[in-house]
User: Fold Phenylalanine--tRNA ligase alpha subunit from Aequitasia blattaphilus.
Amino acid sequence: MKEKLKKLQEEAIQLIEESVTPETLNDVRIKYLGKKGELTAVLKGMKDVAKEERPKVGQLVNESREIIEHALDYAKTEMEKARRAEQMKKEVIDVTLPSKKNMIGHRHPNTIALEEVERIFVGMGYEVVEGPEVEYDLYNFEKLNIPADHPAKDEQDTFFINPEIVLRTQTSPVQARVMEQGKLPIRMIAPGRVFRSDEVDATHSPSFHQIEGLVVDKKVSFADLKGTLEVFAKELFGEETKTKFRPHHFQFTEPSAEVDVSCFKCGGEGCRFCKGTGWIEILGCGMVHPRVLEMCNIDPNEYSGFAFGVGLERIALLKYEIDDMRLLYENDIRFLKQF
Assistant:
């Protein structure tokens, strides 16, 4: 029995010395010290040992167990030390190196300008409404008093999916959809992407953004429109900003006007930014055409309204004094991180 225990002990020590991972060490532990291990089997065979020899055999088994356990613990400790040393070697930190900068993104200048415009109009009681970018010709043109083959369509040459469906040229179709619902009064702005068949240059793009506003209620007048846009201009460009309305023609408003603001760069004195005029054009507006109200099932004898539209990119270009619209779309980090 003594020889058998010595042989088991030598075999276990050899296997422990050959182990290279904690998993193989655990396998040795189970093989020799587990419930069904070699030493346990020896203890179960004690019934075949003479009664007077049993204490000696039991002592030998316990001594072998202690030797094997000690060898296992020592091997495990050495493995831990080696693993830790290797980890420390890989994770060494050179404190003389410059730290890595945490690159945090931020909003695009278009988004900043849009949120500012929305803040102004929401503060005046307006609702922000969105609509589809792929639109029916009916809403993009017909319901805005631009019938088929009308010359006004030439100014908004767009991308047709088929004769009845287009990529919208303006966000005015959202206004027509809201008016159709008949929930009056209406105070809304409709921001979104629009499309026109334009060549790309410093001031044009086939895809850009508009913000259009609409108010429909009883006894709405041109004076309400002027007052609203004056407040908007002062909030956006500064309290000293003045507005000027010039007669114009839009097919869906009558009367219509273009709106200029006094140059916030030179205070109206005349400079390169305003091309020496002291004024900068920012948007178009007018009273909603009675025909448009009728086509949207609103009685023009009882209700009236005004509408306006401004290019979001134009607001961003003016507010941040950017001279080329293409910079907004090129995703040049050197440009965008200035905002």
About this structure: The chain has two domains: 2-90, 109-336.
